[in-house]
């Protein structure tokens, strides 16, 4: 066999699969970037932000579906984890809205879609997404599991700090007296920590190449809107 023939062999299946996977990842990142940039520009500079607000539920669903698409292990344990986190967080929010004793006194608007018992059905999905992303990110830190849970809970609360002023401005929810209470962040941390301990004790593959991109994208999205509105 000549030298030229030996250097023109077909790529191995592993390299082909890796290349295709990377292309899918770039496409997913591009789609999410397009949605978030369009939403950012529309909410920040449009004369009619209500047009863009109607796509918030779609954006949330799309983001979660893409994250799930790049989760390598969708075993029964992972499915149970997702259902449990979404259900527990939803009913904690219901208790919060109905009593005003957990997060403070607040009410949800119409932006997040259909509601049951005063809470949008997508809230459980939002908690699942934040819990999942924070847990995956904390896996990069080689510390004891409870310390990782604390780090992940801080990441969740950090995102909420950026979300709150934007959510209030655009009617996602409203606070009594228009004041975001410190109690809200304390309750978020407590619930996030409980869910992260559960995350650490559930066995499934905890890596996802899309997670760092999505977390940073959402953080910049809400932080940027908050700065412009401030």
TrEMBL record:
It comes from the Bacteria. It holds the Pfam family Caroten_synth. The keyword tRNA processing does not apply. The keyword Oxidoreductase does not apply. Keywords: Membrane, Transmembrane, Transmembrane helix. InterPro entries: CruF-like (IPR007354). This is Carotenoid biosynthesis protein. The lineage of its organism: Bacteria, Pseudomonadati, Bacteroidota, Cytophagia, Cytophagales.
